[in-house]
Amino acid sequence: DLEMPEVGGQELIRDVKARESDAEIIVETCHNESEVIIDVMKNGVYDYLIKPIDLNELLLKVQRAVETAYLKKVHRASEKERTIRLENQLNWLKWMHERSQSGAFDKTAKEKALFYNLRTSLTQGSGFGQLISVLLFILESAQQNGDKYEIDKNIMDMVRENTYTASRIIDSLNEIDILLGQEIKTEEMTAADVRNILQEAMKEAEDSQKHHDNHIVISENKESFKELLLNCNADQLKRAIKELLLNAMKFSPKGTTISLLLSHNAGKLNINVLNEVKATRDLGNGKTAEGGIPLEYQNLVFEPFFRLEHSVFENFDTLDIGMGLNIVRTIVEKLGGSIAASNVRDYTDWKLQEGRLLVDFEVQLPLLNEAKSGQTAATSSSSR
Question: How far apart are CA 4 and CA 137, in angstroms?
C-alpha cells in the first residue's frame, strides 16, 4: 500500500527492487491520480490496484504475478544453462584446434568428439587415467637387466587392477552403444507388477553397497495398482530404477533414508526417487554453491559423461564415468516416458526451520487406462 504507518509505499518499492530487481510487486492504494500511477509504475511494479479491491481480481493478479515470476526464473536458468553449454563447446573446439595444429590428432570427427567427452570422465579414479600414470611411471623407473626389464611387483599389481577396470569400461560403453541402437520390447503389465520390479531394484541397489550406509523405503501398495495397465519392459525398468537408487545413495549423507514412491495421476504412472543432500556444495577455494541439482543443471545431468561432482565412490562397485543418468533417460524415453530432476524442500521435520533439501528424480510412464475411481494414488507413507 502506498499509505502505510511505518514506511512509505514508494520507499518500500525502491528498497525491494534494489534487493531483488525481478521481484513482482502489486500496489494497492486509494490514489487514482494518473501522475501518481505513472510515477509508481516507473519503479517496475507488476500491477496497480485501486481500492476498494475485488477479492477475485486480487487473487487473479497474484496468480498471474506468481506465474510471471516463475517464467522469469526458468528463463534465467535456461540462459545460464545455455552459457554453460557454450563454454563447454568452446573449450572442446579450442582443445581440438590445438590438437589438430600439433599434428597429434588425425582421427575422424566422431572419434574426436567421443575422445573429448571421455577425456574428463576416464582420467579420474581408477581405469584409463591411473593406468596411463602407472605406465608412465614404469617407463621412468623400470630397470634394464639384460634383454629384460625389472618392474616392482606392487606396480605390476596396479597395472593388472587398472587394466581390469579399463576393460570393464570398454564393455560398459559397448553395452551402452547396443542400448542406444535398439528398440526395447515391451509387454502389458499392471502398476502392481511395476511395484514388484521396484522392490527388486531396491534389493539389488542396497546389496551393491559394500557398507550399508543408507536405507531405502518404498511407498505402500495400493489396491488400485492392479487395475492400472501400461506397456513396459521389466528388465530395463529395473535397470533404470536401480541406477537412480545407486545415484541417490552415492550423494546422500550416511544414515539417511532414500524414498521410492509410486503413484498415478492424469494418465501417468509416476515413480519418484528422493534422497536428502547437503544444502550447499563445496566448489573449493572457500566457494560454495546450491546443493543438490540447481535449476540450470537439471537438464545437463542427463547428458553423456556430464558429472556435476567428480567424486570417487569407493563404497560401490561402479565405474562412475558419467553415463548412468544418460542410460536412465534413454531407457525411459524408449518406454514412451519422461524423466525430470529437481530440488525440493521437505518441511515435515519441525526441528529444521530451513527444511531438508531433497533431490527428486521423477519418472513418468504413460498408462493405458486409469483406475475406475480416477483418483490420484499419491503416497507418502512407507513400508517394506
Answer: 75
